[in-house]
């Protein structure tokens, strides 16, 4: 093969690697941004319906995602931290493989008082989180879906302290929305 053809192939390969959005992620300056929390989120977004995918991806890219682990007693558990001076939940998204009971352990490492306002079968659970303290809340989520939680103190939710519990599973046919795909701006 001539040097001209090798050069032409190299230039084409370089253009493909730098021009393609997905392959562009392989550049070293991009790889360092994909910490394990963000990588978990990117992998999970493919399983979220289209209208919610954009919202979830935008709101929770910084807090990351974790999967609840089932204990020997059948209760699923996850830990959430409030890092100092950031007004986020870490992780911001908890994925349950199926409906059931979920115990969340919160650790407030911030200097401010926070609260977790959590969904639980139509009712809400409120957990007080004083500065540099921890607490646990047990909630029951019996249906697949997206369940939002947040901090009702001041404007903390507006500053980023929103979270989501994604409950996996099959939604009964009668509960599914019959709507056409919506165009997104």
Describe the overall structure.
There is one protein chain. This protein starts with a helix and ends in an 18-residue tail after the last strand. The chain is built from four helices and ten strands; from the N terminus they run ααααββββββββββ. It has helices at 3-19, 28-31, 36-45, 50-60, and strands spanning 65-67, 69-70, 76-82, 93-96, 100-108, 114-120, 123-129, 133-141, 145-150, 162-167. The chain folds into two domains: 1-33, no CATH class; 35-172, Immunoglobulin-like, CATH 2.60.40. Residues 20-28 have low confidence and may be disordered. It is α/β, with parallel strands linked by helices and 185 residues long. It has a four-stranded mixed sheet. A four-stranded mixed sheet has the order 2-3-5-8, with no helix packed on it.
User: Helix count, per DSSP?
Assistant: 4
Distance between the termini: 49 Å
At the fourth CATH level, what is the homologous superfamily of the largest domain? Cupredoxins -  blue copper proteins
Radius of gyration over all CA atoms, rounded: 21 Å
Task: Specify the CATH architecture of the largest domain.
Answer: Sandwich
**What is the string of SSEs from the N terminus onward?**
HHHHEEEEEEEEEE
Can you list the strand order of the major beta sheet? 1-4-10-9
Which shape, going by the Cα principal axes? extended
The fraction of residues assigned to DSSP E strands is: 25-35%
Largest sheet: 4 strands, mixed
- Label the structural class: alpha/beta
Low-pLDDT windows of residues: 20-28
CATH topology of the largest domain: Immunoglobulin-like
Q: What is the total domain count?
A: 2
How many strand units? Answer: 10
Nearest-integer average pLDDT: 79
Helix share of residues? 10-25%
The CATH class of the largest domain: Mainly Beta
